[in-house]
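#structure-requests
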Amino acid sequence: MLHMHPVVSSRDGQCLDGQMDETSRISSVEPEKTDIMLALSSISSYNLSDQKVTLPGTKATPPTWNMFDFFAKAFLQFVMTLETDQSSEFVRFHQYFSKFRDIAFTRFCTSSEEKGTIDSYHSKIFQREEKAIKDIAALEQQLAFEREEQAKAFSRYQVAEDHLQQEEQHVKDEALEAEQNLQAEFNAIEEQEQKAFETEESNLNAKCLELKTILNQLQVENRDNELTLRGKKEQSAEEVRSLLDEYNQDIQSRIEELQRLHEDHERTQSKLSVYQTYFRNKELEEARRQEQERLKIEAIQAKLKRKIDAVIFIQYIWRRHLRRIRAKEALENKDKGKKEEKGKKKSEGAKSSKKSSKGPKVKKTVKKKK
């Protein structure tokens, strides 16, 4: 509980009467409430409108004490009406009111030293805020600088990326050119091999045909000889077998040579099939690449067409707007011309009327001049 013992300022030198009466009036209350009532009645028993009251260690102005006077009187009346009843609500209200009174007393009874301390604390806060603002500005400048550096680095990366794309396109072009050269070389080799094979095949066929003709002739001659020899003299079977063996050996050698040529032809055909498979795959890849490029070009053309349509529509709206403006200006000029023509006609009529009235005088002056 607070124990406030007011001391009268040196201007009056004495306390007002009534404090003792108030103290004696509440002395019959319970001891727990007596301290509160004494403290509040000690504040309420003074008229502080024209003086300052000094408490131990604190100083307060008259408006501050007037506020405490109001709360003290109100609380004292409330306590007197309750007498000795203390419910839980009263205890809670008493606690809240005491806290509020202490806060108000502390707030309005701040000493000059405390005020200086608070001002110093506030100045430190302000200095800290100014430093924080300066730090924020420096950080913002650093952020702008870093963003600029980042933009420069990004532009460098973009240039490097463009250079890499150009190199990639150059490599693709070189690969395509090499592939075309290889295809042309392969076609030339294939054509040469095909011509050589066809020439050799035709030669072998001609030789086989010649050998068949010779064989037929030999068979005929052998028959004739056999018949003549059988008719004239008997020919031994061994001679005939030797002739047949020679013939069979010759035919066998020819067959082996033909088989060798056939194997060479098969090897050439296998190489040709490998080359054909390779270039067929290349053609398929090239077709897929061309199809992708065609789709990209179509997408670009579609996008360009949409933009062109939008531009045409905008130009149409703009020309229409210009025609309206020109039509409006022409209409205004036409109305203005009509008004000017009317004004000219009026002025010409006035001039002609003046000339008609001054006609003879003008003629006389003209004659004099002549």
